[in-house]
Amino acid sequence: MTSTARPRGKARVALAANAWLVYAFFYAPIALLVVFSFSADRNVGRWGGFTTSWYGEFADNQPLQDALWVSVRVAVVSTVISVALGTLAALSLERFRFRGQRIFDALLYLPIIIPDVTMAVMMLLFFSQFIDILDSVLGISLAKGFTTITLSHIAFNISFVSIVVRARLSGMSEGLEEAARDLYASRWKAFRFITLPQIMPGIAGGALLALTLSLDDVVVTQFTAGPGATTLPVYVFGLIRRGVTPLINAVSVIMLAASVLLVLLSVLIERLRSSGDEVVPAPGTSQIGS
Q1: Phi/psi at 115 (5° precision)
Q2: Do 142 and 134 contact (CB within 8 A), yes or no?
Q3: Residues 6+ apart with CB under 8 A from 48
Q4: CA–CA gap between residue 129 and residue 123 (Å, rounded)
C-alpha cells in the first residue's frame, strides 16, 4: 500500500511562497489594471481618486462602440463558419482515409505554428491579389474591410477548432457508430444521434476558443482591415499610439471581463463533458434506423 508523502517544514514553506509568487506575477498586473481604471487622474499610472467616468466615456464614445460592434460581428461570423469547417476537417481526418491526408493534416497546423506577423503578411498579399483579380476579371469591386477581416479570422480559427474536435474524436470509440449502422441507421442518422452528441463539448470548446482568438486578434486584423472596419483591439492599439489615458484601462477591463466570461463558460462545458463521459444510451436508440 503506497502513500503520498507531503512536504514538511522549510520545504512546505518554500513551495507555498513559490506558489504565492507565481500567483502575484500573473495576477498583480491585472489587479492594477482594474484599480487604475477607476482613477480620476488622466495619467494612466497615477491614482487621482475614485471615479467611474472612464466607463461612462467608453459608453459615450461612438468610435469605440463602432469598433466593438465590428469586433462582435467578425467574431460571431468567423466562429460559426470556423466551427462548421473545422468540425468537418476533424471528422474527415479521424474517420476517413483519403489520398493526400498527411499533407492536409500538416497544412492544417500551419496557422498555429507560423508567427502572427507572417500570417498577416500572407493574408495581406492574398487579398491584394484577390481584389485585383475580382476587379479586372469579374468586374467586382471589393475593398478591404469587414469581409477580409472575417475571412482572415476564419483562416486561422479553423485549425484551432479542428484540433479541439479531433482531441474529442480520438478518445471516442467507434463501437457505438458501428452498432447504430448495424441497426440500419444511415450514416447521417448515426452521426446525428451518436457522434454529434459525444463531440458537442469539443465543438463548444473550439467555438469558445475561436471566439476568444477573434476578439483578441490585433496583428492579422490590422493588416487586413480597411476604412470603416476597425475592431476594438486595433482601435485600442491606435489609442495607445495617440496617448494613453485611463480610458485604455477601462476598455482593457471590459475586454478582460469578456475573456474571463468565455473561460468560465469553457470550464463549465468541460465539467459537463467530464460528468457525461459515461455514455448512457439515448431513449429510442434501437429505433435509429427506422
Answers
A1: -65, 155
A2: yes
A3: 39, 40, 41, 42
A4: 10
> What amino acid occupies position 206?
G
User: Could you tell me if 191 and 172 are in contact, meaning their C-beta atoms sit under 8 angstroms apart?
Assistant: no
Domain 69-231 carries which CATH code? 1.10.3720.10
**What grid cell was written down for 174?**
467507434
* Bridge partners, residue 39, by sequence: 50
Closest among 38, 34, 60 to 51, alpha carbons compared:
38
Classify residue 168 as exposed, middle or buried by CB count within 10 Å of its CB (0-12, 13-18, 19+).
buried
Distance of alpha carbon 39 from the chain centroid? 31
Integer Cα distance of 9 and 166 in angstroms? 45
What residue ranges do the domains of the chain occupy?
28-60+244-275, 69-231
Number of Cβ atoms within 10 Å of the Cβ of 8: 8
C-alpha distance from residue 32 to each of 21, 24, 38, 67, 133 (Å): 16, 11, 10, 25, 50
Q: Could you report the per-residue pLDDT of 145-163, keeping only the tens digit for each?
A: 888 899 999 999 999 999 9
Alpha-helical (H) ranges within 96-140 are 101-108, 110-113, 116-133
Neighbouring CB atoms inside 10 A of 264's CB total 11
**For range 17-21, the mean pLDDT:** 89
pLDDT digits (tens, 9 = 90+) for 246-272: 888 888 888 788 778 877 877 776 677
What span, in angstroms and rounded, lies between the C-alpha atoms of 155 and 204?
19
